């Protein structure tokens, strides 16, 4: 049941893209409920296409470091980190775990690994952002278990 975290390889691409869509589907369902269809559809007309482009962009970006979690021989999750030396920080810009591998420690292992990697780059602070809605509750618990401190932020929207 061990979780190995290793460098992203080109052969991991399809698994990472697929798991990102599976992992974020409940998040997008929640966002649509919270924001309402009109605002959500205005913000994200096609979330699958947007998600695919965002994750694919991170995988292709030379300034982004991507690692994958492997469990039982399968890519179970991944993270993407951007280091910002002028801010003395590294930001985990993406972190997702395939639903079949959630609640077994893969997310926490990825978060801890990302923070350790940021520290090893000489940065003084690690940053991870997530949502405050119910669909992000697991992510918030994971990041807090990994030792990160939340700063609640509220962002308001209105359909006009």
TrEMBL record:
One of its GO terms (molecular function) is acyltransferase activity, transferring groups other than amino-acyl groups. The keyword tRNA processing does not apply. Keywords: Acyltransferase, Transferase. Residues 3-160 form the N-acetyltransferase domain. Pfam families: Acetyltransf_1. PROSITE patterns: GNAT. This is Acetyltransferase (GNAT) family protein. It comes from Nocardiopsis flavescens.
């Amino acid at each position: 049941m061990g979780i190995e975290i290793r460098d992203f390889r080109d052969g991991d691409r399809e698994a990472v893209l697929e798991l990102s869509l599976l992992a974020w589907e409940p998040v997008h369902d929640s966002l649509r409920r919270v924001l309402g269809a009109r605002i959500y559809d205005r913000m994200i007309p096609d979330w699958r296409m947007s998600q695919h482009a965002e994750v694919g962009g991170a995988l292709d970006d030379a300034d982004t470091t991507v690692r994958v979690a492997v469990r039982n021989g399968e890519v179970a999750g991944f993270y993407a980190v951007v280091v910002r030396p002028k801010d003395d920080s590294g930001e985990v810009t993406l972190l997702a775990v395939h639903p079949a591998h959630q609640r077994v420690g893969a997310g926490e292992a990825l978060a801890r690994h990302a923070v350790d990697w940021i520290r090893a780059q000489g940065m003084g602070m690690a940053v991870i952002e997530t949502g405050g809605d119910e669909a992000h509750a697991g992510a918030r618990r994971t990041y807090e278990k990994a030792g990160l401190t939340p700063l609640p932020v509220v962002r308001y929207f209105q359909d006009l």
